[in-house]
Design brief:
136 residues; elongated; five-stranded mixed beta sheet; alpha/beta; 2 helices
Length: 136
């Protein structure tokens, strides 16, 4: 029996990979053997997880998303997790069901004057910016 491979178009050619089996039993997107998807994380549709990427918790990778590097996360006092990771088009900031491509959108939502966790969100986003200088 031969091992399945997939070309993630990153210059490494076809590498050992498999379609991800999601917690609900559905067959999802491609995950390289070098990457890790754990917990209740889901990879749907045409999404790819490769390189040294790590996707965990309740994360959902879907559509044409491509996650290729480890991400940085920070957890708010109520357990809500924020994460920054590289995508094919740049980077994304994700928390819960919110997905923003760029700091401006994320800050407009999480640091808005009427957000009840505004101050804590501002500290978390400042931290994530500082530790991810590549995310501009």
């Amino acid at each position: 029996m031969s091992e399945e491979t997939f070309d993630f178009q990153d210059g490494n050619g076809p590498v050992p990979a498999a379609r991800h089996k999601n917690p609900d039993g559905t067959l999802g997107g491609w995950v390289a053997k070098t990457a890790q998807v754990s917990g209740d994380a889901r990879v749907y549709g045409n999404a790819w997880v490769y390189g040294n990427a790590q996707v965990s918790g309740d994360a959902q990778v879907s559509g044409d998303a491509q996650v290729s590097k480890p991400y940085t996360k920070a957890t708010r006092s109520d357990g809500y997790e924020f994460a920054v990771f590289e995508t094919a088009s740049g980077f994304a900031i994700v928390a819960g069901c919110r997905y923003f491509e760029g700091w401006r959108q994320a800050e407009e939502y999480w640091i808005s004057a009427d957000h009840p966790k505004r101050d804590e969100n501002a500290v978390i986003l400042a931290f994530l910016r500082a530790v991810n200088p590549w995310a501009k």
